[in-house]
Amino acid sequence: MAMIHPSAIVDPRAQLDSSVDVGAFSIIGPHVSIGAGTVVGPHVVIEGHTTIGKDNKFFQFSSIGAPPQDKKWDGEPTRLEVGDRNTVREFCTFNTGTVQDEGVTRLGNDNWISAYCHLAHDCQVGSNTIFSNNAQLAGHVEVGDWAILSGFAGVHQFCKIGAHAFIGMYTSLTQDVPPFVLVSGNPASAHGVNIEGMKRRGFTRPQIDGVRAAYKLIYRSGMTLEAAKAALVDQQHESPGAAADIGAMLAFLGSASRGIVR
Questions:
Q1: 170: alpha, beta or left, given left = phi > 0 and alpha = psi -120 to 50?
Q2: Of 84, 122, 145, 176, which residue is the catalytic one?
Q3: In angstroms, rounded to a whole number, what is the distance separating the alpha carbons of residues 165 and 157?
Q4: Average pLDDT score, the chain
Q5: Considering the entire predicted model, what is its pTM?
Q6: How many CB atoms lie within 10 A of CB 249?
Q7: Is-catalytic flag, 121?
Q8: Contact between residue 8 and residue 28 where contact means Cβ atoms under 8 Å apart
């Protein structure tokens, strides 16, 4: 049997692994599934069609799986999916998706989500990200693996943030951020490559140098974005050690839907 505090309310239809720990005064709804080793702290509400994986930790006062804050939502059974080994600190709010998109909000694996963060409907967050206190995602936002959002960063709906990008404190983000790029400000502007993050994750010197050269083509060459994209193809050949990383930047530019911070 799951370890459920006597004051917690868990719907009998909820599916909890026998190793799940549910704290005092928490509430878990009928369409919730929680995997092995996950700890739900006190005063947490988990509702909606929500699937949570293994070894997650939810701290007190979070609201997980509530309906989307979208006036178009009309009671459809949309979903929230949370992966494994995520830490979700106090007062976080994760909403389910909407039928106007995929119908599901996703959080991957090994993410660190600090207090007061919001994942709105239909957000797609990868793995190994860090959200500092009060980072806020509007609806339909995509965040790549290893991205970092500093405190009070706010992201406009439908924006995309590439892998390994860094969003500075108090940033107001209304356009897409390519992989590896560091942005900050209100409005946001680019301030180089997230070199420290790349070093911490074991990127080699040729990889870092190649990404820096790609950044200069996009942001410092004076080229139009289309011309810079063509130049990036040549840069892949000139920096074979970073070809895959430059390719990721090039692919992101091809899919950017709101224009990039530039």
A1: left
A2: 122
A3: 18
A4: 97
A5: 0.97
A6: 26
A7: yes
A8: yes
